[in-house]
Write a structure and sequence with these properties.
Oligomer: single chain
Helix content: over 70%
Order of helices and strands: HHHH
Structural class: mainly alpha
Shape: elongated
Number of helices: 4
Amino acid sequence: MTDQPQDARTTAAADAPLQPAAEADEQPLPEDIAALSYEAARDQLVEVVRRLESGQGGLEESISLWERGEMLARRCQQWLDGARERLDHAMAARGEQ
């Protein structure tokens, strides 16, 4: 995690496009991950998986990679959820016309 105050991380995450409200039990994503586009988060996640599957790192490195991978996966899911929400709104608006 970062040494930023909680409010700064929350504000950065809240400003991210398409991001739904985080569940109450989830920690805010670090600013560097919250700022990623879907494609950038996905590409970083692919690299994390590749490194984990290589099995070349030690235990500490593997745990760090796993944790980062979990956060990257959450960011990707936020983008997908936001896109689904936008699509649902667009379809509903189209049906109302």
